[in-house]
## 1
Amino acid sequence: MASKHERFPLAEVTFAGLPLANATVDLWIDEAGRSQWAARVLVSAPLPDTGRLVGRTKDGRAIEGDAFVAGRQMGPGGRRQSLVELHGSGELEGWAEAPE
């Protein structure tokens, strides 16, 4: 069973260098004790299948990590928007660092 689940918004988001709207990030520890994360974002243009997700938390921390597109579905704007789910492929850098 997953533990230590956290969800938080991410602003000033880019993926593979492309600017995006804000994202929602989920971070948890899996059954094997490994840190896992995923992000969801609405997009109006195609995204590469892999890239680096970069953004800022509400308290100003810089967060980033490598990710891949795990799913796409039609967003609330119909065909003009897609809800993209990104899965982390490694640590989410910056989250464990306390804000100053």
## 2
Amino acid sequence: MPEVDKPIILIILDGWGIAPPSRGNAITLARTPVFKKLINTYPTFSLQAGGESVGLPWGEVGNSEVGHLTLGAGKILYQDLPRINRSIADRSFFSNKVFVELCQNIKSTQSQLHLIGMVSPGGVHSYHEHLYALAELAQAQGLNKIFVHAILDGRDTPYNSALGFIEELETNLAKLGVGKVATLSGRYYAMDRDNHWDRTAKYYQALTTGHGETAAAAGAAIKNYYENKVYDEEITPTVVTQDGKPLTQIQNGDGIIFFNFRADRARQITQSFVLGNFKKFDRGVKLQLSVATMTEYERDLPVKVAFPPEVVHNPLARVISEANLKQLHIAETEKYAHVTYFFNGGNEESFAGEEHLLVPSPSVTSYDQKPAMAGREITHKLIAALREGSYNFYVVNFANADMVAHTGNLPATIKAVEFLDEILGQVVAAALEVNGTLLITADHGNAEGLINLQTGTIDKEHSSTPVPLIIVASELEQKVAVNSVVTDDLSQLKPAGILADVAPTILKLIGLPKPKEMTGLSLL
């Protein structure tokens, strides 16, 4: 039976990462007697919190959404870019049901396949390797009428880099023996997200009617734009022609694959093709098309989705709920969605026995004006709840280290860290008073690196550094981890796990079995 008389408290010190001492490390510059005592008294681990360990591309910095999602899910949820990359690497991409069925439909009617998206290695909205894989897949499915409608970047890549990317694309298509670049457009037109429908309309007309600037070849068109000081992002929708006529036009019966994986800037052009009751501009009669998108751009959009969102069936909060245990999720406004929606695996509704407590963030123009933020109010409410004894599990976010570090103000961030150390002492004392167990961790780093040591400039952004995990309980005192701390410098500690290991560790402490969906491992 679960030991329901022993509450478990998960404390998330948002933005508290591990890095060697430096002139920009607010955590090691701060006075933190409580934290230092904890890491030398209780089992302490270093956890990977960025890159592939949280489902992001290699080396990419962690973030609060992914961090809380991983902490709550107990598994790595691969985000869109690495998820698609992995499917290409293991070849499952080439048997993706959505892509294969669309290609077979087109083949049966001898129609055309149009691949629409940004041709860029930027990895923010799209990735050029995904386009190459789609062309390979279509060729393997026996299609020979394949057209690329290339959107040009210039924002997540150098402003004048599209020519090289288009030349690389055409080389790849030539090797396959199928596929041609049919149109070009800067993202300014093709990927508007701010309801500038005149831009979207201009792009739509180029694709469907052949109206727009014209050129005999894609590369020549880009060179001409560069000569006139018009660069990638702002290149006007341009139609590639052959013998004075458009190479192709999208028409009834054709298939479209929108290959951007990020949704926000792909919605408007996709809606223009697929919505029945469309009134943003006069598109003429709606074309009858087979349409697929790489990822889900919008719920209820009438398209097939090749990589739909992964569903977290058994997040930690559900497992605790189904064991008839009560739980309380606490945060201030800035991080409230993170301890509710994201921690619960993207579930909008709370589970049975789960309560939420929102503490308003202070009304200041910048959080360096109040480094304590709403931390003291959160602490008071948490301690009151612990003494009342109504809940078996608590998840609490303290936003200070992250939100104050985002201001770039090093002295204020040091104050935020020292404040956190102070209230951590109060929370630990209150938890031990009621025979509780605390797990003190973070979702990602930030406060440990406010100065770029190579350039000397202020660094306000997240990092890919590891984060701490300290397990505090009376019975664990002086039971330090095998590879635990020998000094106060946690950066000397080798990472022993990942964020996905926290939920299984909590379940082991409670005495509940780990669901099969959780691939993380208990650290105890």
